[in-house]
Amino acid sequence: MKRASKIYTALVMVFLFAPIAILLVFSFNDAKSLSVFSGFSLHWYRELFRDDETLKAVRNTLVLAVSAALISTAMGTAAAVGMNRMRNKVLRQTMDSVTNIPMINPDIITGISLMLMFVFVGRLFGAATSLNFGTMLIAHITFCLPYVILQVLPKLQQMDKALPEAAMDLGCTPLRAFFKAELPEIMPGVITGLIMAFTLSLDDFVISYFTSGNGFQTLPIRIYNMTKKTVTPKMYALATIIFFVILTLLLISNLYDEDEVQKRRAARQIRKASKEAKT
Amino acid sequence: MKKIIALLTAVLLLSALLAGCGGGGKTLTLNVYNWGEYISDGSEDSFNTVREFEKWYQETYGQKVKVNYTTFASNEDMYAKLSSGAVSYDVVVPSDYMIARMRENGMLLELNFDNIPNYEYIDKSFRGLYYDPDNKYTVPYTYGVTGIIYDANVVDEEDVGGWELLWNDHYKGNILQFNNSRDAFGTAMYKLGLDVNSTDRDVWNQALAELKAQAPLVKSYVMDEIYNMMESGEAAIGAYYAGDYFTMIDAQADGVDLRFYYPERTNYFVDAMCIPSCCQNKELAEIFINYMLSPEPAIANAEFIYYACPNTQVFNNDDYIQEMGAEAMEILYPPMSGFSSLYNQYAFRALDEQTQDYVNSLWESLKIN
Predict the structure, then answer these.
(1) Which of A118, A141, A108 shows the shortest CA–CA distance to A209?
(2) Which of B16, B71, B84 sits opposite A134 (nearest CB)?
(3) Domain A52-232 adopts which CATH fold?
(4) pTM metric for this prediction
């Protein structure tokens, strides 16, 4: 049984990572092919860093993802705090469901409806173009928000309600109490929300596709548009770099994750205790 | 306090929405919308067309211009974006049938050829094509012809010639067919000598019967997967555009020997530059189109895209001919005599909605089996 589960895990790993491994290997290919490996070379990496339009798309994607993540985290945390304090249960549940709509909604509906709204508002103001960086940012914040709220709200519910009250008893203003007592308590949720918002924004295609205007294209859109001809191995190089950057960030965040450290420490103690109990 | 913050946020969001709407400033902006990978972009030490245009414009007119170059993946994508009314582009490069549709819908502006003197470089065969019969709206950018690619190590030289190769049961499981209805039906219709733009359902039914007869022989229905399958020798026969054949040759595996030929009747396409009605600076757009026709950028683009170029300054240029090689020149530029009549006869045109729906339903019935 144990062996079966090991094989199963190995299979899952293979299916998850084989595509990435292939991409990684072929990003170092000398030739353009995805089927024939003709020799190791850094050619495509060199080409990547010479490709202005692709680098611009990378820059656009990062700027958009960072701003969307920061803004949606700030807004989402504020919304969660507000919702947590609502006394009226019906109102609170309604709010809960309403904020979930963008999450449950298929991307394509969110994308088209946002585009229609931007066009409508743009026409109202008589603008020739209504889609630009601003509209894309609004769209990204829209679909990131519920994820942030979803991460922060449970942390708020876990928190001891007396905590901010105690802080205020000791002379804090409500705002200060929030920053000094409440925020550190819910910080893990806020950080997870931020990271989720960032990754969601980074790899979104459908909504970006509908809300992108002239002059501002993100990386997923640019890659998709290469399909008239073939996607060049430059993109494999880029994907490899992104993969390693994300991997490093993930490793760092795992190493420094306080929660994890504590859990590991606790697990070790339990193991030790159970061993002692046996002997 | 809360109200002020809410108000500020609202103002901020609105201003973000409207940012970029107001022009102004001294830098001109030119919005170009082209196919992906369809311009020489400076890779492999090539000519960076967009940057060079910006430089050239500033030197010539003493004014800065910024080119916003964005890409699309299909004619339909581009059409949807333009007709949403949410964007404004100054130069777009659609394919022929889409140009016809846009022209009929009043989405194109007439060009002022006083600003495009280099138009004289365009080969005379490209005048009076069906999508722009009076040569008022378009300047051709690239063109191409569909041909058949085969692996000479698998396919017997005797079987080569005509569309019959795609129906040859010797090569069962080695044949690739297009995975889009228009091109796939096209192969059957050219084979049978039918009109690919017919509105007669019987004609389409005949083509369907032909495709159904072919289905057991087909390895798979593909679009750009064809590159990997042909390069690696996984399949031996497939139809695709001449320019793309050279991409495959570059990457073919050992033991694969790809060759190419044109069947007698086949599809032609032309992609052309035009100015959509949402254009904000028509004169600048015309200057850009004119620049694209001048020899240096035109040659660089032709070498980068590897499709045929209708510009006489390109295909008669010695350096270009040498760079491409004799084989490529012969395949990319089949004899031009009678091009316009062949083109007008065989090229795909936009089908009317009823026919399109009917073809789609036939296509589904083929794919389900």
Answers:
(1) A108
(2) B16
(3) MetI-like fold (1.10.3720)
(4) 0.86
